[in-house]
Design brief:
Distance between the termini: 74 Å
Number of domains: 2
Strand content: 5-15%
Largest sheet: 6 strands, mixed
Radius of gyration: 31 Å
Low-confidence stretches: none
Order of helices and strands: EHEEHEEEHEHEHHHHHH
Helix content: 55-70%
Mean pLDDT: 77
Number of strands: 8
Shape: elongated
Structural class: alpha/beta
Length: 265
Amino acid sequence: MAAPGIDFAAMKILRPWWQLTGTLPGNEGLVLGSEAAAALDRRPGDTLEVAGLRFTISGILAPTGSQDDHLIFTGIPAAQRVLGKEGLVSMAEVAALCKDCPVSEMVSQIGRALPEARVMAIQQVVKGRMETLAQFRRLSFGISVVVLLVGGLVVLVTMMGSVRERTGEIGVFRAIGFRKRHIITIIFMEAGLVSLTAGVVGYIVGLAGTRAILYLLLERAITAPPQWELLAGATLLALAMGLLSSVYPALMAARMDPNDALRAL
């Protein structure tokens, strides 16, 4: 865990996504990332000794999913004393409160003024993270399409096998007056009920698996509340896939000759 020095007064501009339990300190206080606080077992109001100096913890960050979760933040003067680098700056982050500001030029000018410091724009960092997220999103979309196709084929093969196994039953239905549309309705009802059940069970298993994976990765329990919109979407998607994959088996069952079906008994 590192202890970078920052200007807490500029955090609302540089890191507007921060959510804090407690308050922002002055130059002599500390703000701990969520993982750092969990590892050190510290809460707002506790004290922490760093390099022989004792600081008061003013706030704890909510999880951000970035390196901030593992850091200990303090004011620039305090960080310079702890690291023995009084008057030196190693990194500067630039953010501009305007739409068309020449951020790149500003970064270049600050870099020339602070040749020993690493100067970068928050916008560049955010763009890099967004590009990474977009790549993961495209990958997950591709995997989802493959899974849907495989699932559709499985349903198709399963329903066709079910129709062939029930040839005699279908023949009896046709013999006692069931029309083709009745047979198609029965097949669709069965596929719909199974698909609805599969959608709900799949959502529950996915939610439990997500919690388990997060626990293994972060080594602590993570609250992942149910998302009813996701449950509805998963159920409707499973229903649509099941019905579409059952069209051909339903038509095959409806076209079955009753005489041939009865001879199969």
